[in-house]
Amino acid sequence: MNRILSFRPALENLTREYARSFRNPENVSSILADAIAGLGSYREEGVKSAPLIFITRDLAPLLISIKGNDSIPIGSGSLSTSTVRSALKICGPLGSGQDWAIFLVIREDLDVLQFGVFRTDRFPLHESSFQRLRNTSVPGGGVIGMQKIGENLIEIRDSSGRFHYIDASGLLEVTQNPALMISQWVAAVTESAPANLRQKMESFYHRIAIDLVSLTHGTLSAIVPLGRPYPPFLSDGVVLQESFGLVRAIHRYVKYRDEAATLSLSSYGLLIRKMMSMDGITVFDSSGEVLAFNCFVHEPRKTGPAILGGARKRAFEILSSHLEKDLTCVLYRSQDGYGLCRQNESLSPRPNPHPEIPQSSLLE
After folding, report:
1. Is 14 within 8 Å of 166 (Cβ atoms)?
2. Is-contact 219 276, C-beta < 8 A?
3. N or C: lower Cβ tally within 10 Å for the chain?
């Protein structure tokens, strides 16, 4: 009796849904399954990485639909899983950081699989290329996207709106759906942003959140309601004397759209990613401003069962106990991919944090 169990049959059965519009769905489903398996276990020089993969019949409509640019054909081969593996091996390192994505063009008429890379839209205030695919719903659409949104979780979706999350660890029941976790955190950290800038701030923080859940380092953040005093229990860390001025930076870009404003936003995004990749807690207010980073909380002495888990998990539980009074949201992701987001919607932030920035319409 064969006692080796494999996820492969279940994976091919699922990907067959995405291959139905192709002439040979069995062959295409096998290609899709191999791309998912390769993405889930992909490493670059021993370090886990998370390149984006887009699959289509025709490259030009793909680039238009997700605002991709500067496509670079790199190779081709037979319409087989071996070509998929070659594409990942060659193009995977180029997709590190997701500035460039991998494309696979399925040419059934020629029995050829073409592959290469294209530049994604990485401007901090624009929707990401994958988010554009999420917002697309075209019956019979011919674009399929794959991305890693957790240590062992792969998202696959197509331009018709079909999507699945595939867990390769077998532990999905003990963690929160990363897409929901990201959505909740982004909504909380931008809740009090000026109404006319909120959508741009959501795009800004959504990109940061996707990068954080895709990488191997853990993160921990807390959000303070705007207008509330800074919590004294988070004073063990680097508390900023004044905020970055991120909201004003976005306002400046909307008003002037010059090179300086663009570079400022990109630099802010990089700095916040670095802060959230440190061991301590990054503290925001609900308008999206950073208040502090590398903060630590100390577990109070008490009787009863101890909080299980590492230092980051114990800190998360302590932060969660303050949701009733001091915080609106806390986010936790461990180094091995376990993640949770908890909220308290009863704490209402002040509605207009930046009265000097008009709320009625975007400045041109």
Report:
1. yes
2. yes
3. N
pLDDT tens sequence across 181-195: 888 999 999 999 998
Q: Verify that 148 and 87 share a domain, yes or no.
A: yes
Domain boundary among 156, 172, 188: 172
Determine the 3-state secondary structure of 77 from DSSP. Answer: strand
- Confidence bin at 235 (pLDDT 50/70/90): very high
- Judge whether 68 and 120 are in contact, CB under 8 Å: yes
Residue 49 in this model has a pLDDT that exceeds 80? no
What is the pTM (predicted TM-score) of this model?
Answer: 0.79
> Domain holding 275: CATH number?
3.40.1700.10
- Give the per-residue pLDDT at 121: 87
Question: Could you count the other beta carbons within 10 Å of the beta carbon of residue 34?
Answer: 22
Q: CB–CB of 244/292 below 8 Å?
A: no
Question: Would you list the DSSP string of 142-185?
Answer: -EEEEEE-SSSEEEEEETTS-EEEEESSS-GGGS--HHHHHHHH
Q: Are 197 and 245 in contact (CB under 8 A)?
A: no
Q: What's the CA gap between 110 and 57, in Å, rounded?
A: 12
139 with 221, same domain: the answer is no
Tell whether the model's pLDDT for residue 307 goes beyond 90: no
pLDDT tops 90 at residue 347: no
Q: 203 and 105, same structural domain?
A: no
Q: Are 209 and 182 in contact (CB under 8 A)?
A: yes
